[in-house]
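Hi P.,

Sorry for the delay on this. The queue was packed all week, but I finally got your sequence through. Input first:
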Amino acid sequence: MDSDRFETFVDAILAIMMTVMILKIPQPESLSLDGIWKLKMVYIAYFLSFMVILSIWNHHRKLFREIKEIDNLVILIYMSLTFVITLLPYFTAWCAINPDKLAPELCYGLIFILTNILYIFAAYFAMKRDKFGQHPDFAMDKSTYLNFSVFIIGFAIAIIFNIPQAIFISCMLSLIIWNFTAKLFTKDKEVDWCGD
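Then the structure:
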């Protein structure tokens, strides 16, 4: 299958997800700074989830700039990734309304972990199965391991010490790691499969 059509399809889904998330934000009870301040966790969760979708789109765009053809396995993995992403607005709202509860934070964190894993698989198989493009050998770099270490630490703190916000913080840190540290850990700065 031509990758351009698929890229357009995924772009449309990501745009819809960004739109759906804003619709989940409630209006302040009172038109005052206090009313807005009461919704601070909702705004923070929305911003974080928006940045996740934006990051996925950016990495997706860079990947598909290199990929010419995809097969059914790549489509299946990407559709699994898309399914997980479509759950993000629901879990964002649930987590924002219940920031001190472990169950919503765990589910929100699991969405992040699944998104990371599925994107790694999608990128790996897309590059491996593309017969027409020239791609560097795919290898998970140190930033990927750092990312998953942050998740493990965040989940452990949340569960062991009953601090649910640790998962939310680990999600924020993983977003920073995913977007800003990949080039720092790459031996060959010229070979960056997600770079411009």
